[in-house]
Structure formats: C-alpha cells, structure tokens
Design brief:
single chain, alpha+beta, about 25% helix
Length: about 240
C-alpha cells in the first residue's frame, strides 16, 4: 500500500468513526439527561517514512459536561439537579450507574426505581417503600412517606465529568478517566427533567461537514487504487 493511500485510508476510518459518534449525538437530542460526546484526534508520527509525515488516529471520546435545559413536567417524581452531580442507580458492585435526571416510580413490591426498573440508590442501597402510599422528595434529596424520612437519595459526582463512559439512555459510569465517585450535596429539583445538551443545528452542520470529508477521502482512495491497478496492468504488458 502506498503511503498516500495509507494516509487517506486512516483519515477515512477516523472520519467514519467520528460520524458514528456525531450521528449518535443527533439521535439522542431528545433523550433526557443525555450529554453530547465528542471524539478527539491525535497525530501519529510516521518515522519510518519521514520525520515530517503524520497520520491521524482517534483519541478517547469525551463527554460534554455542560448541563442540558430544564423543563417543568408537573410530576413530583420527575427529578433533576441544580449544578453538578448525578443521581445513582444500581450498577455493578461498587460501580454505580449515574444519571443527571430520573423519573421515579414504585413497583408492586415497593421498590423505588426509574421508569426502566433500575433501582434508585438511597443511602447507598435499594429502598422499598409502602406501594400504597405516595412518596415525596425534598430539595435535599430526602425520601419521605407519611411524614417519615426513609432515607436520602445517593448523589455523586466525579473529578472529571468529561471522562465518564456513556451507557446509553442518558446513563454513565465512572472509570479511570473520570476518577472515582464521591458524595455531593446537590439541590434536587422536583417536577423537572433535564434535557439533552446536544445543540441540534450545530450537530447537523458538523455531520454534513464530516460526510463531505469522508466522501472526499473515499474518492482519494479510489484514485490511488485505480492508479495502482494501472501500474500493475502496465507492468504485465510484454
């Protein structure tokens, strides 16, 4: 493979991967609590060719930590947070699933969970309440029922929100890049949902630009291939 074809192929692969990420952002523009993901690039020096030649490689993805817009729902079990922090849902042992916004429900067994049935952590554990009696959530995150405080919602944050791993549906998990979780005292906003922070118009423009870049690189790849085929054919002539 010629060096030019190698560079064009690396660029096309990078652009395609970036397109996939941007397309996923656009598809989640209406997902509550979703935060836009971006892909970084890094130059890779091709020393075996020449000291001034570089290739492009994908770096790690990064979550945009900016909060999304808040909208009022009138449902007291729709919750969001003011400022930094995340609600905690049950995940793998010792690794909570984090969400910027949750819509709570109580199932027949009394388990407090989100709408998909994931247990919402209260004081670091699952909470079962009386399913026949309504619950209230205070601004401090206290879960109350019939005037009794049953516990406090587990609210966490991480040192680097941009390093969180997206799980889909506006959910995230901490990792080495984000740092470990720690408890915070964020204000809980009842009756509100945080929307996605995806800027729809800007994301669409970015996707169009990436598609054009990818198409241009594919044309370059095709041109190199045709040139190589021509050289091979010429070499076979008597």
């Amino acid at each position: 493979m010629s060096y030019g074809l190698y560079v064009a192929t690396a660029g096309a692969v990078a652009r395609q991967n970036q397109l996939d990420v941007v397309s996923n952002n656009l598809a989640n523009a209406n997902t509550p609590g979703y935060r836009s993901v971006d892909v970084g690039f890094q130059e890779v020096l091709a020393e075996e060719q020449a000291p001034d030649r570089h290739l492009v490689a994908l770096a790690e993805t990064r979550v945009d930590p900016r909060p999304g817009p808040l909208s009022s729902t009138g449902n007291p079990l729709d919750l969001s947070l003011e400022g930094r922090g995340y609600f905690a849902l049950q995940g793998a042992p010792g690794v909570p699933v984090l969400a910027r916004t949750v819509s709570l429900k109580v199932d027949e067994s009394g388990l407090l969970s989100d709408q998909r049935g994931r247990p919402v952590m209260v004081d670091g554990a699952e909470l079962h309440v009386d399913p026949a009696s309504p619950i209230q959530i205070t601004a401090e995150g206290e879960v109350t029922q019939s005037g009794q405080v049953l516990g406090r919602l587990s609210l966490y944050d991480v040192g680097n929100g941009g390093g969180l791993s997206p799980l889909g549906d506006g959910l995230y998990t901490p990792n080495d890049g984000s740092g470990p979780v720690f408890e915070v005292g964020a204000k809980v906003l009842s009756g509100t949902i945080e929307g996605s922070n995806v800027e729809t118009v800007g994301t669409m423009v970015k996707m169009i630009r990436l598609e054009r870049d990818h198409q241009s690189l594919m044309k370059v790849i095709q041109a190199y291939r045709e040139a190589d085929e021509g050289l091979i054919a010429a070499g076979r002539k008597p």
